[in-house]
Amino acid sequence: MSEKESSRERSHTSIAPKTSKTREKSTLPLQSLEHGSPRDGNSTSSPMPPKPPPDGGLAAWVQVICSWLIFFNVLGILNTYGQFQTIYEIDILRSESSSNISWIGSVQFLLCYVTTIFTGPIWDAGHIRFLLVIGIVVSVFGMMMLSLCHTYWQFFLAQAIVVGVGFGFVFMPASAIVPQWFSTKNSFAVGIATTGSSIGAVIYPILLNQLTPRIGFGWTVRIMGFMILGTMLPAVALMQLRNPPSATRRALIDLHAFKDVPYLLSCIGFFIGFLGLYVLYYYIQLYAIQVTGTEPGLAFYLLAILNAASFFGRLLPNYAAGYFGPMNTQVFFGVATGILSFCLLAIKTSRAVIAFTTLYGFFSGPFVSLPIPVIASVSLDKRVLGTRLGMSFAFIGFGVLIGGPVAGVILGGSQNWVGLIIWCGVMLLASSAIIGAARIAKTGLVVKTRS
Q: Which of 346, 373, 401, 387 is nearest to 193 (CA)?
């Protein structure tokens, strides 16, 4: 072999591997584009879907505990507003009408839920610590300001606006974290987490009722603020995302989601249901005092009894939802709660109103614990669950915003309790019908389905 030929052979051999490596590198951008490059926020292709949830394990149950602690404070205090309403009407704001006072609780509830429209995309982007820290700081600041209030607008700004927005920041992590870690046990795990609201709504009204006469309203509210701080801090340290953050920057409102008929009907159904649901939470104590002649000392405990019963109403129905489906379970308990509301028309004694309060607490419990599993069940892409939950929570918030004041206007100075009760019952039954329509839109007229 000639020297020239052998040098060509050596040169060909040395170049070949480099060419191979160059081709290998050149294919990487193409592959990343096929699956959606995580660096390219404008990529139209979606990244690979997250792995299935572990459906249990220590890390998963720690997230349930963190969610429980947040619900203990957020929904616990929101559901305590009936106690605030009674204190305001009887003492601090007695010159204001029932309707005006109910606006404080309704707007607080609204802002907690509507804020999730903004926090949903932030959650999807993976900024969990930002949401928790900002939410805790704002919530505690609002409670401290509430302890210094004297006039109606001061109460409105501190309790409705500041505390409401603060709660909205932490409410999204508490709602969206559990579905990342559970699949078949998701409804039950969410039910366990939401029982925190029942315990909080038992403890906070009793605390408010017992401490206010002894140390005053201001110091009682400050103690509640310190409780919020101490019980929510563990969530900052322990709560962690399982799914990778969304690579795409999302709009605050995903209008495309409303083309999904089951999702749209679910949102409307929850809006209608919450128009009536919290009416009796706000007014059951006043009804017991004025209509059944219950002693005020006993009537103050009705809200605690209602929320204690809702502990089982958020646990057992959610366990059943694992077998019958969250939508089917929601429809059943919605109808039962609506029918039960009409039964209040016949109740005129203290014993009967206590029994009613217990039953209403149990059957209305799923309205708080099942919306998250229902929305998760109609949202196939869990990477946008935060955005979808945020939009659905806004519907719920507007329902509570409108429902309380409308009920106050219906009650009026003439104490029209019949009209108030009918409003509550009709809204709950209409909600069940719409959720039922959402279930049919999702699965058709199939009787045996876990939807």
A: 373
Q: Hey, what are 91's tokens?
A: 């003492």
Least confident of 29-43, 66-80, 231-245, 325-339: 29-43
Backbone angles phi, psi at 437, to 5 degrees: -65, -35
CB 318 within 8 A of CB 305: no
Of residues 51 and 362, more confidently modeled: 362
- C-alpha dist (Å) from residue 31 to 18, 27, 51, 112: 20, 6, 20, 42
Q: How many CA atoms lie within 13 A of 340 on its CB side?
A: 21
pLDDT in tens, 159-174: 999 999 999 999 989 9
Angle between helices 302-324 and 279-290 (to 10 degrees): 140
Q: What is the pLDDT of residue 23?
A: 39
Contact 378, 262 (CB under 8 A): yes
Nearest partner of 363 among 432, 308, 310, 300, judged by Cα: 310
What gap in Å lies between CA 219 and CA 212, rounded to an integer? 8
Cα–Cα distance measured from residue 169 to residue 256, given in angstroms and rounded to the nearest whole number: 24
- pLDDT (tens digit per residue) in 74-127: 999 998 887 888 889 888 888 888 778 888 988 898 899 889 888 888 888 888
DSSP 183: S
Angle at 24 between CA 22 and CA 26, to 5 degrees: 70
Closest by CA to 53, choosing from 174, 247, 187, is: 187
Is the CB of residue 407 less than 8 Å from the CB of residue 286? no
| 190 in Cβ contact with 373 (< 8 Å) | yes
Distance in angstroms (rounded) separating the CA atoms of residues 117 and 340: 33
Q: Looking at residue 408, what is its pLDDT?
A: 83
The owner of tokens 């006993």 is 298
